Amino acid sequence: LAMTIGAEPPPNRAGWERLQRRLGRLRNLDVLRERLKAVQRQIGGDRDDALTEMAQHLTRRRHHLRDRAVKALHDTSIGPMLPDAQRADGVPIDHQDPARLAARWWHDQAAPLAGEPAWDRRLGPRTPRKADRAAFHAIRVQARSLRYGLEWWARLGLHPRPETVAFLVAVQDVLGALRDGGRTRAALTGRQFRRPRALINASLAAGRAEWPRVVAQRGLLTQPAFEEDPS
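Now predict its structure.
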């Protein structure tokens, strides 16, 4: 965003990136814990010693990651807020046209994602190859960034198109569920987890079936992301 409007980036960028990584790991662990709890409820796993031990291990791991994230947050400087920031040429950002800046930001960020070859890669029935996993993860991360960016511009009074937001949410949800489900299935090893793995496999199959319908909407990335001001 700072590159789009020509402003200097906020200080301590390395600190922000470190915070982002740690919060991401914390979020992934929370998702894994919630999925494990769901499996426990479905199969009466509260009485399963292996599942209980795994849940306790994840809880201890979460405490550790939370403490690291809090430290990263304290170490990160906030920097100036955009309404008071200056462009590199000294012109106040709030004197610029938000709609024009938003359109430029969307084009610069969304157009490359629309042309990403990974959209056409097939989600096979088993765990995708490492290169495929990385490609799908990159799509999900970029979709998340675009979605959060639209929310930021909405705070300036612009109106993101609902269908565009819904598409980005679907990309996040489907790819996120497939990634987290695959990780959960890999963690449940042993014959005693045959039933929960079967449930996870059914969930993964539903996600793979949904993905082509999501991909069919990627043309939204090459269209305007904002509605005209109704006023």
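The longest helix spans residues 13-43.
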